[in-house]
Amino acid sequence: MIDWGWMADHLDELAFRTLQHLYLTAIAVIAGFAISFVLAVWSVRRRAVYPPIAALAGVLYTIPSLALFAALVPVTGLRSIVTAEFPLVAYTLLIFIRNIVSGFDAVPRDVLEAADGMGYTPRRRLWLVELPLALPLVIAGIRLATVSTIGLVTITGILGDGLGGLGFFIFEAYRHTFLTETLFGAVPLMLLAVVADVVLVRVQRRLTPWSRPARPSEDATIATVGA
Amino acid sequence: MTAAPPAPRAPTRASTVEFRHVTKRYDAGAKNTPGAVNDLSLTVPAGKICVLVGPSGCGKTTSLKMVNRLIEPTSGEILIDGEDAAQRDVIELRRSIGYVIQQVGLFPHQTIGENVVTVPRLLGWSKERQRERADELLALIGLEPGKYRNRYPSQLSGGERQRVGVARALAADPPIMLMDEPFGAVDPIVRERLQNEFLRLQEELAKTILFVTHDIDEAIKMGDLVAVMQVGGHLAQFASPDEILASPASDFVARFVGADRGLKRLSLSRVGALQLRPTTTAKVGEDAAAARRRASADPLGYLLLVDDQNRPLGWIAHEDIPQEGQLTESMADSMSPLLDRRTTLKDALSMLLDANVQVGIVVDRNGAVLGVVTADMIAERMRETVREGPFVPHAPEVDPSAIAADAVGGSADREPEPEPQAAGAP
Fold it and tell me: Is B49 helix (H, G, I), strand (E, B) or coil?
C-alpha cells in the first residue's frame, strides 16, 4: 500500500517543500496582519469605519480561492507569487480584523481612563497599554489565521510547481493516483498546522505572564483583613 | 498595618484649585453622558481635602475630571495656583496631578512595582530612581516591597489594589490629587481602614485633594470642606462638615445629609474638645472617714475609687463608705465606660447610653483618671456649636493641644489608635 522506500528517497524534497510552505504561510500571515492592524486600530479609534471594513473583509472571505486565481492570473501572471498570496492575505483579513478589534475592545475601560488621567500620550497608550492587553485575543487571531493559511497554501500548488508547498505532493499524487505521495504531503501538512498552533500558544503564554489564572495568594487576603 | 511611615519630611508642595464659573453642558440628544455642571465656583485651599458629594448625575465626577481635563469645560475656567489649566499642555498637566478612580485601573500586564511608578516612568526618571521610589511607595501604603513588588494586580485583594492605586497617584509627588470614589469598591470594613490610613498619610503629605463620593458619611469623615452638589450640577452648599450638618443651606442639603445629622455631628467632635468635669477620687487604702467627708461634698454624692496609679476601679456611693477603717477594692460597686480624649462624642454618647451609670470616665494613655463626661455635657456642647459665627474654613473642631499631647504620648507604644479623624483638625 504505502511505498516507504519512495518516501525515504524524497526526504530532501519534503524538507524543501515544508520550508516553502512555511515561507508562503509566513508572507500571508505577516502581510495580512500588517494590513489588518492598521485597519483595526483605525476602526477602534473611529467606530464608524468598522462596519464597512468588516463587511468588506467578510465579502473577500466568501470569494472562492479558485475564482480569485482565475481573476488574477490575467493581471498578475500564472506562476506569480503575488497571484498566490493575494487570496491568502485576503482570507486572513476577516480573522485578524475581528480579533484585533475584539482585543482592543476587551481592554478594561478603567485601565484606559487611568492611563489617560496619568498623562499617557495616545501613541504610548496604544503601544504600551492597549496592545499588550489586547494580546491574548490578537494572538488567538494569529493562531487561527496561521492554521487556516497553512491549509490554504496547498491550493496555490495549482498555479505551478514553484508554489503550493506541501500541496505540491498532493497535486502530484492526484495526477498519478499515488496514495503514498498524498500522505507524504497531507500528514506533514497536518503536523505543521498542529505544531504551529502549539508554538503560538507557547508564545502567548510567554508574552502575557499576567493573564495566568488569577489566584490571590491566601496570605495576601489575610494581610488585608487582619492588617 | 501601615509599616513605619517614612521619617517626617518637609511638607510637600500643594496647590490651590479654583473653579470660576465652570459650566459643562451636554447635547440634549447625547446618550450616557456624565452629569452636567452649572456655574460652579469654589476654591480649594492648598493642602486641604475638598469632598464633592451628591446623588448620581449631580456632576461631581464631571467637575473632578475637568481639573485634569479628561473633560473640557463648556465655559468658565479652572485655576491651579492662579494659572488657567486650559492653557497648560494637557499631558504635562495630567502628569502633575494624581488620579485615583474607583475601579483602580491598575495595569494588569504590569507588576505592582511597575504600576506604582507609572508617572515617574512617563516623566523619564532613571530605572534606579524608579525602583527606589516604587519600594518607598509600597512601604508607605503598608505593602512590604519584597513581597509585593513583583506580583501582578490579579494576585492582590481588592483592598490591596486600592492602596496600590493611591500609591500610584502619589508616585511623582503631585501637588494635587483627584480621587473619584477611591474606596468605593471594597467592603465597609476595609473601606474604613483605607480611609483612616489615607487621612493619616494626608496629615504628613498635605496634598490638595478633590475627593468625589456619593456617601455623605464618607464626605463628612474625609473632608476639610464639603461641596454638596445637586442634580443639574448646582452647588448646593460649600462649607466645613460641621457647618453643613449644623446649618444645611437648603432643604435639599438637609435631606441629603439625613435626619440624623445631629448624631453625625457628634462624630466630628471628640471628648478632648469638652471641658472635663473633675471628680472626687480616693485611693485604695485611704482612710474611709476622710473619704466619706469628701464624698458628701461631691455634687454627685459618689466617690471614684482608684488604684495607686490613679486608674479607676469603680464608684462608691457616699452612704456605702464605712465610717472607719480603710477603703478596699471590693467596695467599688459600679463602673463607668472608660473614654479617652480621642473618642468621638458619638461613640462616647453611645457608650453612656449603654452603661448603668451615665457618667463616662476619661482616662489618659496610661489609664489614669482625667475627669468625667456626662450625656448632658455632650448635648450642651452640641448646642454651643450650632450657633457659631460665619463660616471659617477648617476651623479646628478638636482641641489641638489634646490631640498633640496624645500623639506625643502615643509614639512610644504604638497601640492601635482610634481612627485619626484629626483630618478636620490642623
Answer: strand
